[in-house]
Amino acid sequence: MQRFIYILSLLILTVSFRPGLAQQELGLHFMPRTFQTQFTNSAFMQEKLINISLPSIYAQGMHNGFGLGHLLQRSPSGDSLILDVEGVLDRMKDENMVRTNAHADLLAVSVKVGPLQLSMSTGTRASGYLNYPKALPELAWYGNAAKLDETLNLGPDFQFFAYHEITAGGAVKLGKIQLGTRLKYLIGLANFSSAGHLATLRTNSEIYQLQLQVNYELQTSVFDLGNIDEINPSFEPVPFTKNHGFAADLGVVYEVNDRLKLSASIIDLGFINWNDQSASYKAEGDVSFEGLDVAAFFLDDSFDTGAFIDSLTSGISLTKSDAEFKTGLPARIYLSGTFAPIKSLRLGALFYNEFYRGKAYPSLAISASKDLGKIFTGGITYSVRNRRLDNLGVNLLLKPGPVVFFIVTDQLNTLILPNKAQQVNLRLGTNITF
Amino acid sequence: MKKTYSLILAGILITGLLSSCRLIEDTDKIITPDWEPELALPLVNTDLTLQEIIDFAGENKYITIDQDGLISLSYSAEVVSFTAADIGILKLPNIPVPMFDTAQSVPFPIDEISKITLESGYLAYDIESETSGNYELILRLENAVKDGNPFEAVIPFSSPANLIDSVSLAGYDLIFTDGTVDIYYSLRNTATGEKTPASQAFLSLERLKYNYAEGVIGTYDITSAVDTIPIEMVQDIKDARIALTNPSISFSFENSFGIPIEVAMPTFDGETSDNGTVSLGHQGLKDGIVIEYPRLNEVGKSYSTTIDIHKDNSNIVELISSLPQAINYQFGLTANPEGNANTYGFINDSSHLAIGVDIRVPLEGYVGGLTFEKTMNLDIAQIDMAGAGGFKLITENGLPLDVALQAYFVDANGVMIDSLFEAPETFFRSPELNPDGSVQSPGIQTIEVFFPEERFLNIFEATHLKITGNLATASGGTVPVRLSASDGLGIKLGVTAKVKTQ
To answer: Would an 8 Å CB–CB cutoff place B11 in contact with chain A?
Structure first.
């Protein structure tokens, strides 16, 4: 027990130092009576023989820089709100992240045949990611005069993409072990991402000479910015493109005994090749502006504005090229254990980690759920993620007959104290089980 | 238990929803703070040397740079040129010769001239013959020789007649051995060869113009009119103490007269701003200096004589330092000043005396108390977006000068609204100097001025900017300095400004 507490504390500390990105809500992992729990471990098998998942939605938003309540402060008189920009800037970290996800699962079906469970599903995913440096809003708010002799990192890193997902999966129970996999065919709908995001600005305290360094690359597919000399954005999405990809989920469940189960899974190990209307835009170079050489102006008796602007911009090369590129899906792992002291009560613990754009974003959750008869299951989760220890979630399932209604969120506290919230997720769905 | 749980859950949800609603309800009462980012930008970053300014000016005959880089202002020109006619040397009059006999000698009016080569001239005659027949008028001028042959003219006529005409003497040398002109005439019958005298004969040498003359040239004086050279730039300089420590003037005399000439400058005065006069004190020029001249066997040659005037032989430093607004000058020439009877010389039609002046003023000296003032129109479009601001000026001064400036913002009624500095600020600080007055290392000055918003708004009312300044060389203008072509200025200027977005 002590060892367990020690390990749990260590995990909490580890998780506390990394912002969580969790594309998926954690509470869903602890809802075995929903078909969608397979999205967290392809080895999870349903109780019922046939499960049909009707269209369901999932939405998630996270911003680890500040919450709405930090930006909008109530005035002393209490009758209005004050936009506390400086307070928010003080709160920000050096790197701040905004993450949004939306899933629209159109249809999913699973069928059990003996020890085997086969499943298929289709849906659309949209993901947005923005990592912006604190220096960028600070520069906009305070101006560069407040940041003399500092090299300001201004380049945001972002990725916005959407894709269709068509999956086929299977799980098999072999004694105490369940193995599962889902194979996914992906169709990329659009992509607008940064591949290199170096942009720095330095203002010298001598006479405020400016030095700008840029090494920035945008990769787009279907979303077009136009030509370098005439930016003209256009976005004409189509339901099917030539952007193909593949991914796989792998999972295993081990039944230690009839009360304790251990599970492990890896989700979305895959990629999408973007080559339909794909392009790369690059800006690279250095520009320095140290003031006008008025002596040259007087000696030449003329000032060529065009030549002057050219001298400033010639340090930066702008290119556009047709380019194919590949993006990896954010792979996730779930390591969990579930203990059922009594049949209708389940206690669980989960270690979750998401790998995205070269970094890892772990989270830790514990859960308790109770079946109230066959109709209702309710559970709560407590998670540590995104350096916050106040994530209280709830998952509810109502099954009046073959229809299953469920709702799950990891941030019930967002509903109670929305002004302090920095992340929110919610999934709603309806399944039919036979 | 289930009921209690459900109630608790419902309570939490309702509380949360109410909180959300209140937040949503109040979003139309959001007070936005003033957004005033402060921008910092470099404006000017420039270096300029005197060499670059000189190069920009192009080929400039007024500025010279020696091998050490020392800059001098120089001026060279031919000031005046005199010919024999200008001086009035050897003006040849007409010489009437009434012929009382067929041969007559008359004295040449310019004695001691031994030879004249005529460029043009005429022997005019008025002869009356009363006898009848065909005759020839024979005229002979014994002094006139051309190609070794004396002048003789034979003019046929039919008598009786009154012959009035003239014969050209161009190209003839008039040679005087005893200072007289010897003329002979006769009327000869062409048939018989008999010579008869005219009833009346009158000859004259007229319109004589020489292109060469030699002999003992007399003494001739000429003094030119006083001429003035205005110096406009000095008129804007007030109350300054200026000393240029090593100016010089060289007068060059190119003389092709074959006679000694004495040159003097009775007038070389500077007019000062207080209507005073400073005269150039150089004893030689006051008294007159005899310049070199070509000898008899050096016809066509010219000799140059240079007179240098500098600080050691004149008061030229005092003259230049008085900041004359104009220079009045006058030359006086005396040909054969001593009237020496043994001074045998020549003059020809190209003989001339050209006087040139070469003024050289090295930029070496000191300046003190040089003040200047300039008022210019100021048109500051009211920049609604600008709040407080300031500027930072860094000067790197490689000129041996201290320059202090003050600027006043003045409204349309001439009232001063504000000044740029509390007191005149030294914009350029004189650098460290070497013992010879040249710059050792540049002087660096940093000036920062801040304008709070209320000052900014006041300045927008200004319609004029009045700039006053004070310039002095190092150590308050008491130590001589020297300006070299490599000296220069570096100016860096950056500005900050708060941008008002509302």
So the answer is: no
